[in-house]
Amino acid sequence: MPLMPNDFVGLNTSLYSTLHGKQIEHLERSIWLRRVGRFNEALDIFRENLDEVKEVPVVLIEQANIYLECYSYGKLYRFLDKPLRDREGDEETLARPEWRLMALTRAMVVVRHRGTIEPAIEELERTQKWLKDFPVDSYTDVHVNCVWRYIIAYLFVKLGATYECPDAELIPRPESVFAPWQGLTDLRSSLLKRGMVRHAAGLFRVEISRTPLMDRLRKYEEIIPTLSMIESPRSRHLAEADLRLRLCDDLAIIHDLSAAQNEAVKCELALDSLCSDPNVDLGDDQSHRLHLQLVRLGFISDPIAKFNAAIELLEPLSARSHPNQGNCLYLATEVAAMIAQTGSEAHLVKFYELHRRLEHLNEYVFEDLCDLVSCQSGLLSLTVDNRVDAQKSLEWIQGFFLKYPHFQAPTVMANLYYKCSILFNTVRDEGRSKEALDRSREWDRRAGQVQNIHHQNYTNIFANSGGSAEDSAYDSEDDVSNFSFSERWIHCLTDIPQGTMIVMHAIIDWAFDDLGKDLITINTVTGLFGMDAEDLEQMREHGANKYREKLKSVDAGAVFEAVYLPGGRPSHERYDALSSWLHKPPKGSRNDRLFGLLMFLYIRKGWLEQLQLRDVHIEEIDRTLELQSNFPQMLKAFSSPWRWAWVVEKAWCYYLKFLATGDLETGWDFVLKAKCLVEEAVSGFRETKQIGQVALGQRLSAQISLLYIRKLQQRDSVQDAGGAHGSANLSINEQIRQLRRDGLEAVLETDRIFTEIELEASWLDGVEGIEERKKVARFQNSHTTVQVAVQLLLSAPDERSDESRMLVWELVQKFKARSLARTIGMFRPNPPGLVNKILASPDCGPVYQEMLDLQARIDAAEAKDRLHLRRTLDAHRKKMKEHDLLRQLINRREGTPFDLSELDGIQSQAGKPVVLVDWFFVPPYFNDPPKMGDGFIILLTARARQTPTIDILDTDPSAAAKWIKATFTAQKDLDQPMLGRHSAKTDLNQLCGSLVTPLERRTREGDVLVLCPTHELHRLPMHALDVDEEPLIRRNPVLYIHSHSLLRSCQSAALYAADVQSPMNALVFSGIGRIHDRSYRAGRKSVVDVAARLNAEPLIDETATKPRFLDSVTRSRVFHLHTHCSWNASDALEHSLEFPVLTDPPPQSPIPIHDTTERPKLTAREIFDVRLQQGGHVNLIACSAGSIDNQAGDEPMGLVPAILYSGASSTVSTLWPIEDDVGDRFSRSFFDSFIRQAKKNDQGALRSIRELAQALPEIDREYRRGEIERSVRWIDIAEAVQLAVLSLDPQQTEPLLSWAGFILHGFWMFPVTGDESKELK
């Protein structure tokens, strides 16, 4: 039986005349399937039954409606774009209503799918011209659908960009009352009069979204009774279910859950009636019932129950490709994040899993780029709070820009750039942070807004994840139309000068707006801005609006300071007037104005902080906290994370007030207040998952614990310490131990958090990666964290336990050169021997392969798609640390602090006892013993399989600086360098000798000593200090390292060279040209002789060019460089090696020893970008080549760190300028030992062959001989350096200048093959 018109469910039936009967039946069937959510079956009908009429407009429209209803914006855009483009230029066709409908649909989705606004605006304006004078009684069904698309397109444009066109809201044209969107109501009335009830019900879907929330119930009461006029039962029941479902949702928005529950029941009854219709298939009600279940999730108050229900609902929604699966996923993600804030790691994992699904759905299924970014915003905010994944989030944003260069939606772009700014600031890239903030402001000026556009309620949004809407009362002031979290307020948080201008301009605009509406008097305005009689006269003369603009043109900071901070003090009278006025706002502006008042206080706090007015600053914080605590619910929820920052800010104010007193007795009340506040703040930070802030708060808590310990050490009872810790029944020592435990727990948590943040602070290698990590470490004051922990450990009143000594040693390893150590492992290859062991292990091999597979997936993925993969890889690497072999691999990559268990392998390789020696400066803290008032230095020694030792030295911490100043600074005015005087050595031992005194009992003669100095000690020749009445270098082989973590990296490079048997290919270079032969003859001859001994061609004179040198260095593994060096104390990255000047001087002209000719240079900055052969050794026979700039946290910078970073395993350099002949003598003696060791090892190998000769057949003997000749020999560079230094002063009669300047850095064992040792002479 053919369908009758009364049975039609389509809304474009006037176009059916282009089809015949069977085609209409197929089309109607597809429309019904779409209406009940059976989208795939609906699409099958178009493919199987309507293909021959696929270009007919009504067929195009209805197929497009399927894509639209299931939010397939990408498919919809592509589906309509081709037929519309094919008809470009055919104005007659495109002017028809059906083609206008398709054009509007494309314009609507282009905003969401491509983020382009202009095409949508063009289509809106084209439609306005078409319909502005079109009476509602003349609208056909197609016109009605055009209006529906027009309104949605208008909404998308207004949300995405600035679009001011008041006439746009007069479509359809109102019949009498010209109010925004009145035409929708007029059109619905007209449709009902004409019996077009289904069309009226369809139009109602957009009309209701343009209606204020509290007016909606009346609208529903008008439309629902009219549904009885629909003749088709199934259409009537479906329309009623639709409307009651929407009503249920709207009632939930206004928090009337009782009424919402009633409507849900009525919706179910309508669906039951639908199912009883014989023309309805089984299951046609399921899509609506699933939607109803989603609405009912808002009725659940318990977060875990809500989360579980959402997860359960996701399965059937996903199975049906339900359009609301995105909403359900979003809800589940938000609830998971909220539960995770209570400490549930399982729900945090679920949050990331669900977010990945949501991201995939938005990008690849819905292809909705606006929603993609909107949903990503929550994850980016979480990144800002935890700081660890900042680089991953930056990669996502930058990847988004690369993948979608056409995306230009201003609102979204402003938000993305603002997030970029915060993330760059998190990793301390202040330049790019400011650049991103400027871009955000540029986009923000063109951004859209939601006032009077998107009728939603913020209270419901905030309640959505934390419980049911019933938990909070509906407040119309919280409607989205009344408040937008505008970027203007957010900018106040990042830029005080900019924020001052934003706040002042807002106050000026509000004041003059209210004055124009007679809401405030002229006296109020003059009081707000401190206007005098002359100002008042100007305003009357020129008019209020002109005076408003004049006020806004004046420097905002000057006005703010003059009006609200007169004389550097806050004006409470003016603030009270401002607060009183803003607390009585016009309807619909409450939240915006109260938030503006909060930003006012935030800005004034910033000014007071700069003025260091602690008491006034504290008062302002109290005012801010009081204001926020009295906020309406939505504003309070939105601003609650900031509250804890203000609380800890107040704690810091009290702590700084205490420091200003300089006395525990006088300032103790400030300590007590700071302690209570920081505990409150840390608890709040944990609840809101602000992990970085937790770390900062915990460190302050540990510092306060130290103060309590100092207080207890002064007093005889806990009551005198404020009674805030422990019990009076505990002894002083027991209380101190408890305080120490609590403080250590806090500060070690700080260290764990900051370590994770620093590891992810940069993915760059080279000097950029080091500098970026150093910025983060400086910002976090990571060195302070370690110092506080060490101070706590050393505060124990009893003997230090093995556990305490081990922990001090581990903390000191974390302190030194952490940025260099963490960056150096990023590009270094793993030793093949270690990798082979891993692959051979049944436990480790598969885990290692999984890591490689994950890395390959990351490398193959687009930048935007790597975030979740990188997080998976991070989690996998943590699991890898459970296996010893894999932990070695990860430790090398991450530059983790050196573990004493690793010393076994190093000592075994060296064949000698090895002792690690560390010096560490402990800064002063309140009531250190008087002789330690400037802090003190501790000496740590560590042997394999033994607990480290700790000695507190009585050396003056400034002794090294005094000796350096006396020795190096004063020598410029003397004929003979101070180092050339014998008194320099005596002075050195008198001032600094106690630095090494404990080594007499902590080490034995012949031990290899690995010295790791601190601060100014890096500039001292520690090996020249006396132990057992002679220089340390005579007693022990000595080498230096900037941190023992770098020792691991250097050893790894040497092992790599041994495993792959990299050839030496010696490079011997002279940076001294022939024109200086008379002055530097010894050095030039030394270069030629050393090259001959190493079987190499020297780079000298014409061959010693920078290009030739750089071409050679990547193929060499032994470098001997005899040249000049330029040290720049103000910029260690300009520390450079010089190349020779080849131009001959004029005849008979004298050649100065140190001429001023500009030479080509190779700087440390450039060397960081060079990739040397792994495991090389570099001799730098150059003045002050071993100088470094030692920054906070013992972060070294200079030539030696650059060379070690680039792949070398060891360097020899000099601490000060040396004479040419001294460099020559050192070099000859050094290579005597180097070659002798290689030959000695070779002879040992040959003896092994002779011993085997009688036992093996000849063929096996020959094979064994070749194997041994190819095998690796290890040369002890430390021994070679020791012998070379001793050869310069055999009788101990020479001054320091002649012998003590040479130092070895890195790993001292150097591999050569038997074949190579034969070539040495």
UniProtKB/TrEMBL annotation:
Domain CHAT per the UniProt entry, residue ranges: 988-1306
**Which Pfam family, an example, fits this chain?**
CHAT
**Can you say what this protein is called?**
CHAT domain-containing protein
Q: What is the lineage of its organism?
A: Eukaryota, Fungi, Dikarya, Ascomycota, Pezizomycotina
